[in-house]
Design a protein that fits this description.
348 residues, alpha/beta, seven-stranded mixed β-sheet, six-stranded mixed β-sheet, 12 helices
Length: 348
């Protein structure tokens, strides 16, 4: 549940001295016309810590007219550094670059990089990220493209303004038909997603996967290419350290075991969320999933549909736990769905 340091840029004054000019010319940088932004390891802040020589850092402060910082205050911050009392690092993300620009916390980020407390990533709990309106509009536009009155061959189509999934990430607040955050809150007491590989069949706009950034790898499959396209847009802006991949696939035509083998994918858990009504060959699909992962997350559309599906898994020898008895996250008022965590024989 983190963002790689390579996506977090430390701010330097636009009043570039000779050393900063040389650093900028030596490699990539970004600028908003007021500041230069460099990756942490190229910043004067980090170099002072890594070398123990604060001369270049102090000269930079002088040339930039920065009277709020000094070598003494930086050393004090380093010596007294504590994660328990550290304020969160505040960053902005703008439309013309897919990077986080640190607005408050340059020194803290440099110290975290220097101390290697979390390797080369910053856990999300220590990051406040503000997505500017132009970025949010791009995300909303991608979601709107998934909404259509045209039904797929199986009768399914996204209906609400921004599609099937709501998004509640950082300052991104986009309403959809279903609320992934609320759904996952019911699942997490029963299953720990930390560093797991998750395969989501019928991922739609990827909301379930994106709301569990603590996973190691998340793979989403969906029939609708527009949904896959929207997933790619979100992936490019969220910048989570988890490995996300999305593929357009007809679930009536896929052999899960061979597909996973071809992709070098070993899922810990597979999401089968409300698929029974839309995949005609659900028995074949579910059977393959049963032997592909140690756990399945099954959501049924109603009790009538649930009976044959649950009986099918019982006959295979599964252990079934009811996780949620209603889909009260659905903005349309359809509360008839139930969710089950299924432990397969692969778990033994």
């Amino acid at each position: 549940m983190a963002v790689p340091f390579e996506h977090l840029l430390i701010k330097h004054s636009y009043k570039a001295n000779e050393e900063l000019t040389a650093e900028i010319k030596s490699g990539p940088y970004l600028s908003n016309g007021h500041f230069y932004f460099l990756t942490p390891e190229r910043s004067f802040h980090y170099k002072a810590l890594a070398t123990g020589n604060y001369k270049q850092y102090v000269q930079y402060l002088h040339d930039a007219g920065d009277t709020d910082h000094s070598e003494e205050t930086f050393r004090t911050l380093l010596n007294n550094f504590s994660l328990e009392t550290m304020p969160v690092i505040w960053a902005n993300i703008y439309g013309h670059t897919k990077k986080f620009w640190i607005q408050d916390g340059n020194h803290r980020l440099a110290i975290l990089k220097y101390k290697q407390l979390f390797g080369d990533v910053l856990p999300l709990k220590y990051l406040r990220a503000d997505y500017y309106p132009d970025v949010q509009e791009e995300l909303k536009t991608a979601l709107k493209q998934t909404v259509s009155n045209d039904q797929h061959y199986n009768g399914w189509h996204n209906r609400t303004e921004f599609g099937y999934h709501s998004f509640d990430l950082y300052t991104i607040q986009i309403p959809g038909q279903r609320n992934p955050k609320q759904r996952l809150e019911k699942v997490k007491p029963y299953y720990d997603f930390t560093n797991k590989t998750v395969l989501d069949l019928g991922c739609n706009t990827g909301g379930m996967l994106f709301h569990i950034p603590e996973i190691k790898r998340g793979v989403g499959l969906d029939f609708d290419q527009k949904c896959i396209d929207s997933c790619e847009v979100f992936k490019s802006w969220l910048l989570f350290s988890a490995d996300y991949q999305f593929h357009q696939v007809d679930l009536n035509d896929i052999h899960i075991l061979s597909w996973c083998a071809a992709k070098a994918l070993q899922p810990d858990i597979i999401f089968l969320l409300s698929l029974g009504s839309w995949v005609s060959s659900w028995k074949k699909l579910y059977a393959e999933c049963f032997y592909a992962a140690s756990h399945l997350l099954l959501e049924t559309n109603n009790d009538e549909e649930a009976k044959p599906q649950l009986c099918f898994f019982e006959e295979l020898g599964a252990t079934i736990t009811l996780v949620s008895d209603k889909s009260d996250d659905d903005s349309t008022g359809n509360y008839k769905r139930k969710t089950y965590l299924i432990r397969t024989l692969k778990h033994v």
